[in-house]
Amino acid sequence: MNALTMLSPQQTAELLPYDALCDAIAAASIDYMAGRIVSPERQVLPLQHGGVLLSMPATGADIGMHKLVNVCPDNGNKNLPTIHGVVSVYDGESGRPLLLLDGPTVTAHRTAAVSLLAMRTLAGQPVARIAIIGCGRQAAAHLDAIAALYPGCRVDIHGRNAEEAALFAAAHRHLPLVCVPASGEVAEDVTVVITLTTSLQPVYHQAARPERLLIGVGAFRPDMAEYAPLPIHGSQIFIDDPIGARHEAGDLIQAGIDWENVASLADAVNGVIDPARPKLFKSVGTAAWDLAAARCALNSLR
What we know:
By secondary structure, this protein is α/β, with parallel strands linked by helices. Helices cover 34% and strands 23% of the residues. Strands 8-7-6-9-10-13-11-12 form an eight-stranded parallel β-sheet. It is globular and about 55 Å long.
């Protein structure tokens, strides 16, 4: 394989197996909190018709990585994907280009892997039943990740309505999962809830409970919210990027949490956990996880 050829989404996915990707992100979380990975806040530049270009670089001792992603809302009218992008990977010593990965595939895979890493470190009991709230691309990526690491698991699918949930569940029945459309409150025996929406209003209101891990992925702007204040204030809060979350994690911002008391993904990986308390993990993303994905891809090629 020519390392400088732009890899397709399928080729990129093949280099990012979820078990290895979770391990890479776990190691990167410790590097990131220790200052061994530099990942500045993303830059946002305007494109035509309300589109934006997002620039997200990160460097470590071994490699440099730059993700450029273009989000163009008008593309649906042109029969084009809303998101295009590329992840370029460079040698940390010489700056030599090493690899070009498909940007949206890297984002989908590393975001799902962060959630699965949170499950691996924070779920206090074996995971047999999961509830997913949301039926978009990230929900699909999470189902792929769950199928890879928790085959046979039951997954309740909650959508905006019963028809959406049924269609989404049916579209993923090829996976080694039991996908079941659901509605109303999350069932009592669900041990992990993953929210993957762009909602401006909370979609989960149930009280926090020690036997249920809550994972929030969707609310990435201050005006968005997936979890209501009740479960937030009843939980020990872990965040993948505590610095970025102060500006992006809408549900936590709106709930008025004490940011001094939040823990990081690195804390979870290191076992700094109170097992008696309910837990909520919030994912906002950082280029450090894209760098971890680049490391994983390079290791797959070796």
